[in-house]
Amino acid sequence: MNIVVLVKQVPDSSAERSLRTDDNTVDRGSASNVINEMDEYAIEEALRIQEAHGGEVTILTMGPEGASESIRKALSMGPDRAVHVLDDALHGSCALATSKVLAAALGTLGADLVLCGAESTDGRVQVMPHMLAERLGIAALTGARKLTVEGGSLTIERQTEEGYEVVAASTPAIVSVWDTINEPRYPSFKGIMAAKKKPVRTLSLADLGVAPDEVGAGGASSAVVEHSKRPPRSGGQKVNDEGEGGVKLVEFLASEKFV
Amino acid sequence: MAEVLVVVEHSGGEVKKVTLEMLTLARELGTPAAVVLGGPGTAAPLVDKLSEYGAAKVYAGESADLDGYLVAPKAAVLADLVRSVSPAAVLLGSTQEGKEIAGRLAVKLDNGLLADVTALAADGTATQVVFAGSTIVKSQVTRGLPLATVRPNSLTPAPAPTTAEVAPLEVAVDDSAKLARVVERKVEPKGARPELTEASVVVSGGRGVGNADNFKLVEELADLLGGAVGASRAAVDSGFYPHQFQVGQTGKTVSPQLYVALGISGAIQHRAGMQTSKTIVAVNKDAEAPIFELADFGVVGDLFKVVPQAAEEIRKRK
């Protein structure tokens, strides 16, 4: 089974993040950039399927030059090769345009299974798997906490508000995973060394047959018109518990009419 | 006035609160029209509630195909409806299903998507709160109509009683939309507590709660306040509480009237999921815990002393 894992480089969510003031896009220059955490679970799941069923695992990333760092990091976990969609015209692309480009790239790779994280920590929009499925005419099984592969049949379990659902599809399909699905491995020293030699193919928009005016800020279907830092919440009253902290807490709740 | 389509979120024959919020919002943008998508017989029990909150029309798309497959058939029916009525806007809940339908709809209509909005102005400008609640963004679609997913608890639903006209929708689902088949739906008992993302009070426990058994304390306070129970990632990763109750990045985003954080230090990833709560209260042993920077009221102390005392005090006052 040939598997493609979508990997997105994002600004580190444990640090300060912001939007640029010149073009309203995510500021990647000042932030430290990392693999979207949820994507590591997708890579791990791909490697486990490969271990059980064979085939190749390919990382697919769309992003600026600097994303190659995250690609090497992803490869150090064990995948065989990577494809980096890199083109200056992509800067400022909306989700819709991103899905168009990724769908074109997936079209050239012919995967049986596409895996990705359920959401990215920067956008948190969760729409990419369904956008891609819609464009590629394949099934999307989203939000998996468990994935079973039997031949060309895929079955997932996914959490719902009411309980959980079991959903099935045949390959080719795209599956997005939550962090409850597995525990990603740490890259070994050997893996890190091997990753340096693994093939990374760069594809431009021209390679994919996508016109530059369909993507980027110019081709975006939505646009940020303004942004501002939310005034930080200021801490209110803080009391030390000297035997009546619980009562004081309730007095506060009562003053706010919660009790 | 043009119609504003509100895709109805429902569960067990009841309209979910986020739908009432969307109907309230829709009234500012045009004439609210609810769209019910589900198996046969789904719409009838929902119509009264939708009317009460101002739905002038209820489009009823009912078919076993809408229920038996993941979102693709719903997106197909909705796309047909949008093409035929040319609404002023389309609103969906910012829930797993709402976002998934919206993503497909955006592709089908080649229409921009405004995700997880907390407000939508009449001119189509959406407000979003991003990056762990640190940044406010105003955005618009530049192609198509305002298509937005609305974050639950972003506004207070207000009734505006009317009598909805029920309009059945033709549901013809192509095989290409039937690729992800729902094999089984398991309902797990969840008791009387409100749903986490919709609750007006959320009481969450963190690593400081210590173990799964001690979460009874968190549950007790939640029940006394009529709230839902949440948990930090540290608590979930330690196995104290199930993942579906996780608040923060890689979990749920909540925006209740009152958020109570017990034994939660307040790492930025947790704050990402609760920072827009109206009132925040915290109990933590560590006076330096970052959660106190956000808390309107904080108690520095042992939660195993403070919480039982607070519970007792609430009971006394009831």
TrEMBL record, chain A:
InterPro entries: ET-Flavoprotein_bsu_CS, ETF_a/b_N, ETF_b, ETF_beta_N, Rossmann-like_a/b/a_fold. Keywords: Electron transport, Transport. It comes from the Bacteria. Residues 219-243 are annotated as: Disordered. GO terms for cellular component: cytosol. Its cofactor is FAD; AMP. The keyword Transport applies. Pfam families: ETF (PF01012). The keyword DNA-binding does not apply. Transmembrane segments: none annotated. Residues 23-212 form the Electron transfer flavoprotein alpha/beta-subunit N-terminal domain. GO terms for molecular function: electron transfer activity. PANTHER family: ELECTRON TRANSFER FLAVOPROTEIN BETA-SUBUNIT, ELECTRON TRANSFER FLAVOPROTEIN SUBUNIT BETA. Belongs to the ETF beta-subunit/FixA family. The electron transfer flavoprotein serves as a specific electron acceptor for other dehydrogenases. It transfers the electrons to the main respiratory chain via ETF-ubiquinone oxidoreductase (ETF dehydrogenase). Heterodimer of an alpha and a beta subunit. This is Electron transfer flavoprotein subunit beta. It comes from Phytohabitans suffuscus. The lineage of its organism: Bacteria, Bacillati, Actinomycetota, Actinomycetes, Micromonosporales.
Automatic annotation (TrEMBL), chain B:
CDD domains: ETF_alpha. It holds the Pfam family ETF. Its cofactor is FAD. GO terms for biological process: fatty acid beta-oxidation using acyl-CoA dehydrogenase. The keyword Transferase does not apply. GO terms for molecular function: electron transfer activity; flavin adenine dinucleotide binding. Keywords: Electron transport, FAD, Flavoprotein, Transport. InterPro entries: DHS-like_NAD/FAD-binding_dom (IPR029035), ETF_a/b_N (IPR014730), ETF_a/FixB (IPR001308), ETF_alpha_N (IPR033947), ETF_asu_C (IPR014731), ETF_asu_C_CS (IPR018206), Rossmann-like_a/b/a_fold (IPR014729). FAD binds at residues 207, 232-233, 246-250, 263-270, 284. Binds 1 FAD per dimer. PROSITE patterns: ETF_ALPHA (PS00696). Residues 4-186 form the Electron transfer flavoprotein alpha/beta-subunit N-terminal domain. It comes from the Bacteria. The electron transfer flavoprotein serves as a specific electron acceptor for other dehydrogenases. It transfers the electrons to the main respiratory chain via ETF-ubiquinone oxidoreductase (ETF dehydrogenase). Belongs to the ETF alpha-subunit/FixB family. Heterodimer of an alpha and a beta subunit. This is Electron transfer flavoprotein subunit alpha. It comes from Phytohabitans suffuscus.
